[in-house]
Here is the input.
Amino acid sequence: MEHVAQHSDPHYDQEASKLGMWLFIFTELLLFGGLFIVYAIYRFLNPEAFQMAGHELNITIGAINTIILLVSSMTIAMSTSALQKKNKGLTVLLLEITIMLALIFLINKYFEWGVKFDHGIWPGSEHLLNDMGHGEVLFFGLYFVMTGLHALHIVIGMIIIIVALNKVQKGTVHADRPSLLENAGLYWHLVDLIWIFLFPLFYLIH
Amino acid sequence: MENEKHHIVPYKVYIYILVALIAMTFMSIGITKINLGEYSVLGAMIFATLKSILVLSWFMHLKFDQPFLRIMVGFVALLFFAVIFITFLDYYFR
Here is the structure.
């Protein structure tokens, strides 16, 4: 009887799910990798302009956002441990904390971009095009595109985590079928990984 | 597969990793405050690379996964550095 019940389960392969997620992560790494190469070349060609423009960015907000993302990465990593230990309540709590931290990151980003807009700096703004040099235009263009694309990944990551959270609550994601939560975690760590490089390259130019 | 016990990372290990990551964040801010000229970028990048190794191996669990995943990640990193290297050969010697 048990034997029959086991074989009626839909096919589930944890290693294959993980491999698939990693293959997707590779495409993401190369997408951002390409942008980092564009950044490296333009910085190499306009070193002074990049340095000047970098001073416009607020290291404190950048550092706070870095720490927020690092902590959120830890909480989602812990949630997979909690799931494996069959502690559903803690898993849910840790995922909720992760989502809150992601939201705080986005709120900080909103204010940060808001300050730039107040200073008349946005892609194609008159202040940028008329009063600043070619190098500054490139720096801020890359800044908005790369942090914007990263913020989009934060939003997508939040949606994935919310889906995983619902399935943990419903019980379809559990210790024996953790792939969705693990893959949500991998995606979230990817977002963290990209920020680890964005932060020094844009905020720490001196 | 079934007798292969899934590795559960203790919570406190994740806390240690987080502390190391935050410490390295402050170190990278510190190193760029000191005027090292060209080397401050290098210093910040070294810290970022160390941080990403910690995230990849512990948070992303590569340390406990099958070796072929690590090899693939290494290959992607190698590909990325090769493209950077070749691109800079072009721009540097123009």
